[in-house]
Amino acid sequence: MNRNQIKYLVIIAMMIDHIAAAFLPDESLLAMIMHFVGRFTAPAMAYFIAEGYHYTRNVRKYAIRLAVFAAISWLPYSLFETGTVTLHFSVIYTFLLGLLAVWLSDTQRCPMILKIVGLAVIGFLSFFGDWLIFVPMWCVVFHLFFIKPSEKEKKKHIIGWNIYGMIGYVYCKLIFESSVPRYSGSWSLGIFAVPFIIAFAYNGESGSKKPFHKWFFYIFYPLHLFLLFALKYLFNMISQ
């Protein structure tokens, strides 16, 4: 599968996840299966953020594009998640932080102490976004161990997946500990399907370069959140 095809696959997975979040109780078996599928999206897209950094002609424009759609997605995400306006931001905001983390870790112009401070600030800011610090960390891991063309040795890939797994373990542990009952957090284990998707399904090709493929996710993300919020609100009004 090429990059476009996998992106559409994980967008469908995201939609399935959000439908479950909107209309099903979290502890139901169907919801857990749907959330499990939805865990494919953020780590896989983090991989493509790191890959996008490598292939983009202009990192600044890439970051601005993410920032604009993070701002556009803020209200639909906030309404979908809580039904009100909050200071919590969508995963596009976290992808932006991931891109900035990759850029900062890669730049040669910045002294190490400033890199450390900058990455710490990015880590702090990530706690205001969906997936918290996990997405920026994965973006950096993918960049360092998979994307850089001079570093595609098998040994580095193994190290990279081990680090991915350790970060994933912390994520799953947090989900399990915050879930009631605990078994209902088992959907978080879906993140461990991503290495198999990238390693065995992705052929490294981009697919069609038509603008539609570039812009679809940015537009679809806030639009589907707003529509799901509206449908959930309507459903609640009718059922009262």
Give structural attributes:
single chain, 240 residues, mainly alpha
List the helices and strands and how they pair.
Blueprint: H1 3-23, H2 29-38, H3 41-55, H4 59-82, H5 91-106, H6 112-126, H7 134-147, H8 154-178, H9 194-201, H10 211-239
Structure description:
74% of the residues lie in helices and 0% in strands. By secondary structure, the chain is mainly α. The chain has one domain. 35% of the residues are buried. The mean pLDDT is 92.
Beta-strand portion reads under 5%
- Principal-axis shape equals globular
> Class by helix and strand content?
mainly alpha
Largest sheet, strands/sense/barrel: none
Q: What is the count of distinct domains? A: 1
Please give the count of helices: 10
Roughly how many Å apart are the termini? 46 Å
Oligomer: single chain
> What does the average pLDDT come to?
92
Rg of Cα set: 18 Å
Order of helices and strands: HHHHHHHHHH
| Low-pLDDT windows of residues | none
Q: Fraction of residues in helices?
A: over 70%
Query: How many individual β-strands?
Result: 0
